[in-house]
Write a structure and sequence with these properties.
Layout (H helix, E strand, L loop, with lengths): L12 H18 L17 H12 L10 H16 L5 E9 L4 E12 L7 E7 L13 H16 L7 E6 L7 H7 L7 E11 L4 E6 L4 H10 L7 H8 L6 H7 L4 E8 L16 H20 L10 E5 L5 E5 L3 H19 L3 H31 L11 H22 L6 H21 L5 H16 L7 H26 L4 H12 L3 H5 L3 H21 L9 E2 L2 E5 L4 E5 L5 H7 L2 E2 L11 E4 L9 E10 L2 E9 L6 E6 L5 E6 L2 E3 L11 E5 L7 E8 L5 E9 L6 H6 L4 E2 L6 E9 L1
Parallel strand pairs: 2-20, 3-4, 3-5, 5-7, 10-23, 11-24
Antiparallel strand pairs: 1-2, 2-4, 6-7, 8-9, 11-12, 12-14, 13-14, 15-16, 16-21, 17-20, 17-22, 18-19, 18-21, 22-24
Helix pairs in contact: 1-15, 2-3, 2-4, 2-9, 4-9, 5-8, 10-13, 10-14, 11-12, 11-13, 11-16, 12-16, 12-18, 13-14, 14-15, 15-16
């Protein structure tokens, strides 16, 4: 069949590939945080350099400062001094708090400061936590958030008087189970708060994403779009995070009924929760991006006659940080239907045959499957060759691009197979499928519906402008560009947030996006294009294999434990160990803790006969179908942490710790039975009350934990080498004993 298209309008295989490469380069460039403003920037502006200097002052010598530690108290005093320098009085609010979700209790010391305001009304609450994990100094997590809040407060105070109250809340104990936020929402101030902005970090660099909101987010999304500099946000991230087990302080406020926005920058994930998370390592550009957004939003909220917290949810996404597109969630179904009807109308008018339409309907799913399958095969091969010994590695960035290129190869391969159907039928079938996908998402996962609606609606409108027997080049490429801009930013972030296991999904998504232009991909020598792209993916993979998986700058996280019971002692680790550590300790799969169901590695250790925790059962009272047991727990060796495990099958109806009620915590993955943790065990001990179902004696376990290993563990620590460091809770000494209740 002769085509009426001019040569300029005919699909060219290189055009679609060039456009995707150009857009990928644009997205990579826009993922870099902005240049931080100098310390000499105008006082009313946020300065990343000023925030960085403040962060260094806060962290002092960089000693880790977990909840309850002397270093934690020192950071708190420096925080109060910084507030005083701004003319603000920091209120220290101490209380015991418990987290029902994590089954942990501890004494926290939150710091609350109130900015002077000319008016009244519900307050804007800015939140960050000042405690760190035991393994690291918390430069990014969450010293960055503390510094951002202080620099934001300084800029606000340098401007005109605030019309609405703005509060700064620096929570304690976030790392131990969101305890500071739990204490605040159960305290007297919750009713005075109208909206919450939370500042967090997952790594030491990157853009600050807005990834979580409260239920009422329609007006807040509009506010973000109007005022945020370089927004990085999507309702898809909100939908995903809702379904994940992860939490921040903001999760506590959201469950308490408040709405707001949660920000975090994600990059250099291997630094997260390690000794390398220092003030110097925290990217000043990331501070700038997070601070720009919080300052602009706080100013807008403080000036608003009424807080934008009316019920209603929005669908929103940013286009490479240039603008935030949004609409009410209730519009998603009508928009999806509009795109579908416009495309169906074109199919009727253009009288396309079933074969071309069928090719378009089957091509994108085929590309998705092919990309996922090729990605899975490459992932398996690289894993077998030792490229991914842990969920995150120093070569993860290189791996990301290898799988992106592989996804493009899958799209080019499918395009070459469907090249002879590159007319309107293939185009219409492709976009009818996208419109149907948008319709399904609008019904089942509204926050993700823009993934189908935005590209399909652009395609439907562009298609009506097309003339000739085949779609012009612009009709192919315009919706392809929109598809890439709405799909690829989230896909490219997957490895940073969820690890190397998501790389096959990245290849599949890239292939799916490429399949939006199957006609151009298949034009010319599509099979040759696919082969060259596959070779490029292999070349990137070979380069990846030639590089070390971990370096001193991007190390592996390995925490070691000394675990002692009355019967034996072991070295223990929860993750795969470097070969030198395995050899030094003769580690084998399995963990010595009786309450851990599976996973990890252990090795025999010399038993040091350390004093076990002391438990005194004070009273046992019968209750309906069970008993109430009051006991006192203390650590004879002064350990600050303690845990109590009840075996599976024991009904824990409720508990109180230091007089604070605790609902039975949910089952934890990898733990047999129920765990109750004390994050701040006083030297004199703590009183615990348990209500158990049944009257039969129960054999439980109690353990205390302190930081560091005994001297006998020094060879294991040295064997870790410079490319491995403690992570999360860090190295610990644990002494456990059986307890009959």
């Amino acid at each position: 069949m002769r085509s009426n298209q001019t040569p300029a309008d005919r699909p060219r295989g290189g055009g679609a590939l060039f456009l995707l490469v150009l857009l990928l380069a644009l997205l990579a460039w826009r993922e870099a945080p902005p240049t931080p403003r100098a310390a000499t920037a105008p006082p009313i502006e946020f300065s990343g350099q000023r925030a960085g200097a403040l962060l260094e002052r806060l962290l002092g010598d960089g000693t880790p400062h977990p909840l309850g530690s002397p270093a934690n108290a020192a950071v708190r005093e420096r925080l109060l001094a910084e507030l005083a320098a701004l003319g603000l009085a920091g209120e220290v609010e101490r209380d015991w708090a418990c987290s029902d979700e994590y089954g942990v209790c501890g004494e926290v010391a939150n710091v609350l400061a109130r900015l002077p305001a000319a008016g009244s009304g519900p307050a804007v609450l800015l939140v960050a936590h000042y405690d760190s994990v035991p393994a690291g100094p918390g430069g990014s997590d969450d010293g960055s958030g503390v510094a951002v809040l202080l620099e934001t407060a300084r800029a606000l105070l340098a401007g005109p008087p605030l019309a609405r109250p703005v509060w700064l809340l620096f929570t304690d104990g976030e790392e131990m189970g969101l305890l500071g936020a739990e204490a605040f929402v159960r305290g007297p101030h919750l009713a005075e708060v109208g909206v919450v902005l939370n500042a967090e970090a997952l790594g030491a660099s990157g853009l600050a994403w807005m990834f979580e909101t409260g239920e009422a987010n329609r007006e807040l999304a509009a506010l973000l779009g109007r005022h945020a500099r370089r927004p990085a946000a999507s309702s898809l991230a909100v939908e995903i995070y809702r379904r994940m087990p992860n939490n921040t302080d903001f999760s506590v406020f959201r469950r308490a009924g408040l709405t707001g926005l949660n920000f975090a920058f994600v990059g250099e994930t291997l630094v997260y929760h390690t000794p390398l998370d220092t003030a110097a390592r925290c990217a000043r550009g990331s501070l700038q991006h997070e601070g720009d957004q919080l300052l602009a939003l706080t100013r807008a909220l403080a000036a608003a006659p009424a807080l934008p917290v009316a019920p209603g949810r929005a669908v929103f996404f940013d286009l490479a940080g240039f603008l935030l597109i949004r609409w009410p969630e209730s519009w998603s179904l009508p928009l999806a239907l509009a795109a579908l009807l416009l495309l169906v109308g074109q199919a009727v008018v253009r009288r396309q045959g079933a074969r071309g339409l069928l090719g378009g309907l089957l091509g994108p799913p085929g590309a998705l499957v092919a990309g996922g399958l090729l990605g899975w095969l490459l992932h398996r091969a690289l894993t077998a060759l030792g490229a991914f010994p842990a969920p995150w590695t120093a070569t993860l960035g290189l791996a990301r691009w290898a799988f992106v290129v592989l996804g493009l190869a899958a799209a080019a391969l499918l395009g070459s197979l469907l090249a002879r159907w590159s007319g309107w039928g293939l185009w219409l079938g492709t976009w009818l499928l996208w419109a149907l996908g948008g319709l399904a998402l609008a019904h089942f996962v509204p926050g993700a519906s823009y993934l189908g609606i935005a590209p399909a609606l652009v395609a439907a409108l562009a298609g009506w402008a097309g003339r000739g027997e085949s779609p012009p080049r612009a009709v192919w490429l315009l919706p392809l560009a929109v598809a890439a801009l709405v799909w690829l930013p989230g896909a490219l972030r997957l490895p940073d947030t969820m690890g190397y296991a998501t790389l096959p999904a990245l290849a599949a998504v890239t292939a799916w996006v490429g399949a939006a232009a199957l006609g151009p991909f298949g034009a010319g020598r599509g099979w040759l294009r696919a082969g060259l792209l596959a070779l490029a993916a292999v070349g990137l993979s070979v380069t990846l294999l030639a590089r070390p998986a971990f370096t001193p700058h991007h190390p592996r996280g390995v925490a070691l434990e000394y675990v002692e019971t009355a019967a034996a002692a072991h070295w223990s680790a929860a993750v795969a160990l470097p070969p030198a550590v395995r050899a030094a300790g003769e580690f084998a799969p399995g963990r010595p803790w009786p309450w851990v169901s599976s996973g990890g590695f252990s090795a025999p250790a010399p038993r040091l006969a350390l004093p076990a925790p002391v438990v005194a059962i004070e009273t046992i009272e019968p209750v309906a179908g069970g008993r109430r047991i009051r006991l006192a727990l203390r650590s004879e060796r002064g350990a600050p942490l303690a845990r109590l495990w009840l075996p599976a099958g024991v009904e824990l109806r409720g508990a109180t710790v230091a007089g604070v009620a605790l609902s039975p915590p949910p089952a934890r993955r990898g733990v047999r039975g129920t765990q109750l943790a004390i994050a701040t065990l006083p030297p004199a001990g703590v009183e615990i009350e348990l209500e158990l179902g049944g009257t039969e004696p129960v054999t439980a376990w109690v353990a205390d934990a302190s930081q560091g290993l005994p001297a006998a563990g020094r060879p294991l620590q040295e064997a870790r080498g410079p490319a491995a460091v403690p992570v999360h809770r860090g190295d610990q000494t644990v002494v456990a004993r059986e307890l009959t209740l």
